[in-house]
Amino acid sequence: MSAVLITSSILILAIAALRPLLRGRIDPRVQYALWLVAALRLLLPVNLFTSAYSALALLEKAERPAQAVQAIGQASLPVPAMSYDDAYVLALQEYQQNAAVTTSFTDLDRVEARARELAQRGLTLGEAAAKYARPVWLGGAALMAGWFLLVNLGLRRRLKGARRLNGVECSLPVYVSDALPSPCLCGALRPGIYVTPAALETPDRLRHVLAHELAHHRHRDHWWALLRCACLCLYWFDPLVWWAAALSRQDCELACDAGAIHALGEGERIPYGRTLVGMIAAGRTSLLQTATTMTGGRRRVRERVRLIARRPKTVLALALAAALLLALAAGCAFSGAPEEAKTLDNLQQRLEDIPEELRDRVRFDLTDEEPGHLADYWFDVPAEWTEDFQPWLLSVRQLSQEELDQTAGSFALNHAPEPFAKSGSQYYALHWSVAIEYAPDDQEQFNAAFEAIRDFAMQTVLETEGVEPYTPPQEAVLAVVNRLLAAPSITLSLAPAGTSRVYPYPIDPSQYPNSHYLSALAFNFRWEEAPWSMSEGTDTLRIEASDGSASLTLKEGSYLVTDGDGNCWKGVYNVKDYLAAADTTPFDYLRRLVFDVAELDVLRSTTVPNRDQSHEDIVREWAENWEGARTKTAPGSQYACTYVRIENVNANLPEFESRDALEEFVRNRNLAFTADDFGKIWFCFSYDTVFVPADQSEDGPMWAGNTRYYEGDGAPEGALVYSHVGYMWLTDEGWTCTGVGTGL
Description:
By secondary structure, the chain is an alpha+beta fold. Helix content is about 40%, strand content about 20%. The protein contains 23 helices and 28 strands.
C-alpha cells in the first residue's frame, strides 16, 4: 500500500497544480476526466510496468528521504513493546535455540533477565505500524463504509415522500420533493431526477434543471460518485484523497455545466447561469453522498457563473503541455522501480546491503580488499571487546579450484572456506571462525546473528545470475554413505572379473563392527567430481541399501566411485597411517576393511548342535567351520586360504590346582559363567590351524600373533600354523564361541 500512497499522492498534487492553469483554457469535461487517472491509481494495487524513472525508483535513489523514513521508523514511543508474559515466552524461545532445555536456576535467571529487558524496551514507530496499521486501517474502512451507508440511506428515506411528475419530456423519471435543498440525480441502478418545488416556478427553470441533471446522467456521475466513495473508504486516513475528492466534485459540476449548455445551445448560456444562481442551495453536501446535488458556497457559485459567462476556449499549446506533464506524472505513478539485475557485477554491492532487521546487530566492513574477498560481517552489539576477541561473524570468498584446494586445512583456528555455490570455474565459499569470539553475555545474540547473516549471504549469492548451488564432493559422498548407514540393511556384493558369479552378503550396518570404515570413506579421501570412465574386465564392488535409498559402485584399479544417481567422484587417499598405502584406491580401501571382514563374518558358523558329543568333537567341528570359512571367500580376499586343517585339539584346559584357583580364574576374567558350571555348560579349549594362505607374502594379514611355518607332515609346501584358545558355552541353539585369541 505504501507504493500506492506515494504514487497516488504525486498524481493528486500534479492534477491539483494543473487545475488553476487549465481552468478556462480547456473544456471542463476534459479537466474533470483527469481525476479518473488518480482514482485508477488508488484502486489498482499493482504497478502496470517498471521503469528506472518511476517515482519509486527515484525515491529509492534519494538518500535523505530514505534516511528520514528510517529515522522516523526507529523513533521510540512511550509504550512497552510487549507484555512481560510475551517477553518471557520470546526470551525462552531465544534460549532454547542456543542451549539445551534445563532446569538450572542460573539459566532460568538469565531467561527472566532477558524477559525484563525485552518488556522494558519501548515500541518504535515502525514496530507500531507493523503491528497495528492493518487492524486500524481495516477498522477505519469499516467505519467509513458504515458512514457511507448511513448518509445515503438517510437521503433515500427523505426521498420516499416524493411524487412523480407526469407530462414532463425527460428520458428519466422526474420526482418533486420538498425534503431536498436542491435538485439532484439519485440512484445508481435505477436513477431518477428529484427537483424542488422552486424548480417548477417557470418552464425555463425546470428545463435548465433537467438539462443539468441529464448531463450528470450522461457523464455517469452517479457511478463516478460510487468510485469516489470507495476511494474515501479505503484511504480514509489520507488527507490528500479527501482533498482530491472535494476538488473532483467541484470539477464534476463545472463539467456538468458545460454539458448542459452544450445540450441547451449557446443561446441558453446566460439564462442557464441565472437559473444556476437561483437554484444552488447554500451549504455543503457530504463527500460520501452519491446523489448529485446543486449545492455550494458563494465562492464556488461565482466561479461556475464566471466560467459559464466566459465560454472556455481551449489553448492548444497549453493543453498539449498539460497533457505531456500529466502523462509523465502518470508514467511515474503507474510504474514500479525495476528490480535490480542480480549479476556477478553487483554481487558485492548486494552483499553489503544488509537487511534492515539485521542492521542493529551486524555490520559490513571489508577488511581485505583483495580480489575474490567479497564480504566481511561483524557482530555489532555494544560490548567490551578486546584485541584477542574480535567480533567477526563470517566472510564470503570467491575461489578458484586451485585456491580452494590450497585452503583445505590451512586455517588453525578458522573453519576452512566451505563452498556452497559455483559459477563457471569459480566457487563461492563461507569462511568463519571456530574460536569463541563473543562476550559471554552476548552468546545468544551472536549465534542468532551468525545464522541470520549466513542465510542472507548464501541466498544473495545463490540468486545471482549464472550461479548454481554447489555441494562439495566430500559432502556429496558423505551424504550417500550416511544414507547407506541409515538403511535397515546393506548388501555388499563382489563380482570378480572373468566370471558370472557374484558374492552378495547382507549386513546390518548398526551391528557390523567395521561400519566406521565405511563412514570414514568420505574423510579419508580427497574427492573431486570426475566423468565415469572405467574399463571392463576388473572386479566390481557394489554397496546397496536394502530400501534403495543409496548405492556405491567401485572398480578394482580405479580411483573412481559412482552412486545410483549417476554422480561420479575421484578419491585420492590423504591419510598417513598403517591402514593403507598412499596409492590406495577407494576399491582397495572398502574391499580390505569392509567387504573382506564382512564376508568372513557371514561365512563363519559360531554354533555347533548339541548331540551329547565329546568336548573335543565340539571344538573340532566348531574350529573347522570357523577356520574353514577362509577357503570359501571370494577370490582376492586377504583372508583367503587354499588349505585349512585343524589339529592338536585340547578341551581339557586349563587344569586348576584347586577350587579357589578356578573361582579366581572366573572372577579375574569377569566371565558370565560360574565355577560350578565349569566342564558342564562351559569349558576352555585350544587348537592349532594348519593353513596355506592365498597371499604368500610375510606381511599379509595371516601373519599375526603366534603364526609360524608348519614343520609337520601332510600339509602343502608353504603351510603356516597358529594356535588359538577360547571359551565354549552351551546355549539353546547349541555350543557356541564368538571368537578366539592367542591366550586365555
